[in-house]
Amino acid sequence: MQISMTVNGDEITRAVEPRVLLVHFIRDELRLTGTHWGCDTSNCGTCVVLMDGVPVKSCTVLAAMADGHAITTVEGLATGATLDPVQQGFMEEHGLQCGFCTPGMMLTARALLDRNPHPDDTEIREAISGQICRCTGYATIVRSVKWAADHPVVAEDAEEEVPA
Amino acid sequence: MTITETHAPNPAAGDADRPIGYGRIQRKEDPRFVRGKGHYVDDIVLPGMLHGAILRSPVAHARLVSIDTTRALAHPGVVAVITGKDLLGLKLAWAPTLSADVQAVLVTDKVRFQGQEVAFVIAEDRYAARDALELIDVDYDVLTPVIDARRALDPGAPVIRDEIEGRTDNHIFDWEAGNAAETDAVFATADVIVKQEIVYPRSHPAPMETCGAVADFEPIEGALTLYETSQAPHAHRTLFAIVSGIPEHKIRIVSPDIGGGFGNKVGIYPGYILAVVGSIVTGRPVKWVEDRSENLMSTSFARDYIMQGEIAATKDGKILAVRTNVLADHGAFNATAQPTKYPAGFFHIFTGSYDIQAAHCKVTGVYTNKAPGGVAYACSFRVTEAVLLIERLVDMLAHKLEVDPAELRLKNLIKPEQFPYKNKTGWEYDSGDYERALRLSMEIAGYDDLRREQKEKRARGELMGIGVSFFTETVGAGPRKHMDIVGLGMADGAELRIHPTGKAVVRISVQSQGQGHETTFAQIVAEEIGIPPEDIDVVHGDTDQTPFGLGTYGSRSTPVSGAAVALVARKVREKAKFIAAAMLETRPEDLEWEKGRWFVKGDPSVGKTIAEIAMGAHGTVALPEGIDGNLDAEVTYDPPNLTFPFGAYICVVDVDPGTGHVKVRRFIAVDDCGTRINPMIIEGQVHGGLTDGVGMALMQFIGFDEAGNNLGGSFMDYLIPTAMEVPNWETGFTVTPSPHHPIGAKGVGESATVGSPPAILNAVVDALSPLGVTHMDIPCTPARVWAAMQGRATPPI
Fold this sequence. Notes:
heterodimer, A: alpha+beta, Ubiquitin-like (UB roll), DNA polymerase, domain 1, five-stranded mixed beta sheet, 5 helices, 14% strand, B: alpha+beta, Aldehyde Oxidoreductase, domain 4, Aldehyde Oxidoreductase, domain 3, 3 domains, seven-stranded mixed beta sheet, 34 strands, 24% strand, globular
């Protein structure tokens, strides 16, 4: 079947098998490998992408269900060389270690901040509670999201700052 | 978060305010990860690449009667189907394990655990490969399985490994440490003895990225490139050479970005071997990536120790001796990964952090119809099990003696002046100041106030618990005189090159799975050479690009590889002195070092920076005899001893009296890992380990039913802590450098996983003690806590 959607702002149209999962479509067909796969059962959230701005687990969404929708993956978070504050926050506050859950965590954080620019710790924890991180113990992810909330605009090329 | 500095600024301590080297800096690997540009095994696509999928046994113990692959082969997109019979022809049906046993790559005679590999389908895409699995017809003759390790040695128990000639039972090994007679003699005269069976149930490391491989065999050169999720690429290369017969110089192992390891990615799994066989058979690259159920059911479980523990003390609370008999469930193949001479890993550090007169342990390993593995999951080679045993026994002793568990520990901790401390099972602890760490954790916790609060709550019928644990780790394996893995000494190499413009590349033999090696090791070089970390690239994970070494596990990267990196940098620095002397037309002994620069003693304005020296080395400076024209060096580091990080943990829990639900309200962790290179990364390692501790103490376990069905085969059944189950960690630290390590660092990757489960369990038991509970086994799930509250034995798992 033929499907069309917007991915990170680009219009795309592809022919897919109806059973193809969105996560496989994004990774294998579009070669956007920042979206990861971790469990198949909607428990781990490493495959989270935004569909029309709302976090979804792309292992449990068929590519066909995304037809006509707008998908944002981790590759769509930054604007050119300018990182999203969430991306900067994860670097500032050590919100990642192995990096595998990170794209999903950051997208969920972005969606949270879009609807609630100043979340408290509990709200952040609830927002990411459908996702698993095995490395960080979550506290630094909470701090990272708070950093992003406190720095809604990041200077251009901030990511190029030399580590202090 | 509480970071409490308790030490005077120590030049070796790493938290000093330094312009170069140590300290909190952002990670060099993060910019690619936050952009989704990490490069993991499943991201690799090679031209013409095929996809493999494994058919796994639905039963735990069965004779394989027949396999018919006809329908699968006819399925569109399927290129090949490999069975055990095919592998027999290639002499690859069985592969050696890391424990002198063999493991079936594909079943040839008998299935020995649920989820075991039966056939391998190779197809044009992952969907076709999966489809074809359902088209393979297998006839099993189901046998009675051995599931309970306690029944494995019963007369008449089914013999799991009957393919081994002459084998009539499921016994693998008996192993002892310490002195039984001395220990028994001390027990015979002790005032107080506490006994308890303590079970550390089977769990699984479950990194977010499952295991996988992409094999690319090039037939003309006879060369294999294998991209795989490996914590030990060099050791894997040697083992693949031995297993496959491909000469080692024709094998390149690449372990790219790894999505967490925690021990899961130490071993060589049948899937990796099948990808290689598939590539050889088809002449095309083959990718195999396991799904989550395959990960949880087949690759490297952890723990599964049934420990009979006993502790002896005087009536005024002096601990005298400890002894234990352990039944170790190793699953269907003895595939535990630890130094060869230590079949129970480093479990014999079960004397813990206490000055004890006598100790003895005996460990018996048995086969069961469960997945193989055993030493995995951030356990520091079974120090987790040892610490749970001793810390639970000490708490029970405190309860019996009616003394505060923290006070009892303070009374018995090894004292600073006793280091280096020889324990009764053969370890020499390098350094420690245990009391300081425990007192600091009590101070951060507000221990006395917590006890007061608990008293008030108990009066109201509320179940609040405070748990203490103190742990000593033994990491950084290990000295070649004592340790090897399948004959390979446990050394690590490092190679440092300073380019002519003063930028550097350091190549290391260990592999990061998220620990931040690209940052930490650059910081070590920076500190030693005096150029900034951003001018130093760390290369790792590719056997063609890095020196040989045994890899990352058992918290050994900083203790072993970190030492290699420090020493190679010092070697370069020393070489730089000779070149600088030539450039300055003076004698090397007349030069003095400051960070980044050699200068003439007494005339600091005359000197040469590392960059100038590097350019001179590669340029036309007339070099002294014996000094060649570069600023490079390499070393292989053989550690003289292990390192012994330690810590004091305090956990506060509230148990819901109506449901048995345990809430971890606070957790205070004081860690001492010696010299601290990057405090941010250390804190991250500790946080992650504490979360594992909550998982193991409260949620995570792999259970089996009587038929051998794995009951923890998905994330719906194997519960991992989310952000809702863990508190805001409160951390502190002390610094007691290792005296034998070049920079005094001890390693920290597994400390919290080792130390935290007993603190949480002790807190739960403490909460339940008004109800008469003196012990329960982890995990403290609501149902099991509820059973304990009713005075029932904890349900089996």
